[in-house]
Amino acid sequence: MEAVVFDLGNVLLPFNWDIAAEKFAVRTGRSRREVDDYMVTMPFLNELSLGRMTKEEYFRVVAKDFAYDGSYEEFALIWSDIFTADEEMIALAAQLKGRLRSFILSNTSVIHMDFIFSRYPFMNTFDGYILSHEVGLLKPDRRIYEVTRDRFGLEPSQSVFIDDILANVEGARGIGIHGIHHRNASSTREELTKLGIAGI
Fold it and tell me: For the segment 117-139, what is each residue's pLDDT rounded down to a tens digit?
């Protein structure tokens, strides 16, 4: 193996949407049901994740719809302070650093990434990033894996992708990249060992 590509959410950074939804419901005087239904039925979050809306446009739309009177900074913190570091997986990524090239491939948004890069220093240690809002594609669209391969000059047979969602893993396998369906650090470590990455 020459390269490892990590998903971000629920691989390196587990997250809990309920934290944001609950805080936003309390802050706006709405019910959790209203917040959850809005996120499911409105296209805005998907548009943000595809880079078709700026963070400012997203904020204005959601603030208007919920009569939210706070600042963007408060809103972004509510929306983003939902992550925790998986120290075992971060340690694993650090162990691989220098032995393999390492990258991030994530369905995400600029709001979350602003927060993540400022909160978690380990995020600055990777060799490159493919972020959905920057490339206008979402996993498991085949094209996002092709962009990853082409941008970083990956040899698929010598690369491995780690994701907690099986459909996303299958997407990588579809262009010949080895895929690991992440469940926990121990099982992922075992799968990497099977691919010949020893001593981790």
Answer: 999 999 999 999 999 999 999 99
